[in-house]
Every structure is written in structure tokens, then in C-alpha cells.
Amino acid sequence: MMNELYILGELMENSKTAYRLRQSMQVSLGRHRKISFGVIYPLFERLEKEGYITLKVQGDDKRSTKLAAITKKGEVRFLELMYAPVPEGAHTDDIFQIKLDSMQHLPLTDQQGLLDQYMNEQIAIVNDCQTELEHLKKHEHKDHWYAAQKMQLRLRQAQVTEQWIQGFKVALEKNGGFQSND
Hints:
The protein is mostly helical and 182 residues long. Helices cover 68% and strands 8% of the residues. It has two domains: 1-85, Arc Repressor Mutant, subunit A (Orthogonal Bundle); 106-175.
């Protein structure tokens, strides 16, 4: 779901090559996330076979590239994925990040709803961290001190994300969506 959603979301903006999609996905998900062409190319083929994208060969030499473009069917699939619940697991935050990156294609009320879902995820993280910190404090030990330091980091990250979500929601309400800074 995650890679498909990312590719379709990026193609909602304009056509792109596999190289460009791979680059932008790595930046979007974090510089240490390595997305291989062994993931991208088979996904391109599947998306084309299912009618979600078209692939057009550019160039006629050994360095020819395929330019991917989304189809109407692909736009419908993109929206299905955007409205699908975010599964809990190792990639939960990545999926939220991808949805946040593409949420401009949703109505404003649905953008707010997505931010509410992300806020609920952060609240759960804060609660989990606070519970664990209380447990570690009750059972003081050298190893627990180090674990508590790491837990404080995770807690603060979630709290900063909560603040960011609140600010973003205010900006959306104030501006009614995207407003150019020009």
C-alpha cells in the first residue's frame, strides 16, 4: 500500500520517471530509507497492467527512460488508498507521512480528518511513553535511566508533532486550504 500510494500521489502532480520517484520517496521517508529500483520497476509494471498508470518510453538509445503518468482509474485508486484506514505496524508513520504529502487532493474537511487521525496516533504515542516512563521511574536501574532518556526523546517528538498538527489545522481553517505566499 505504502509504495503504491506514494507513486500514485506523486503522479497526481505530474508525470515522473522511476528515477525521480525513487529520489523523492527516499527524501520524503528519510535519508536512510533505501528504495530500490527492484521495488519501483515491478510496481510500475503492476500499476500499468492494472490500468492505474501509463508508461511512455522517452529516448531511443540505451539510456531511454519510462515516464509514468496517472490515469483516471489511477486517480480513483489513489483516492481509495487515501481514504483507507492507516494500518498499525512498522510503517504506520511512513503511511501518514505519505498521506500528509498528498492530502491537497482531498476536500478540506477530509484533510482535517486526516490530521485528526494523525493527532490520535500521536496522543497514543504520548500516552505509551508516559506510561513507560512511570514504570521505569518506579524501578530505577542504570539501564532504565538510559531507556528513559530514549523514551523522553520519543515523547518530545510526538509532542512536537502534536503542536505541528494543531498549527497546520489552524492554517487550513484560516486559509481554507492552500494559499500562495505571493
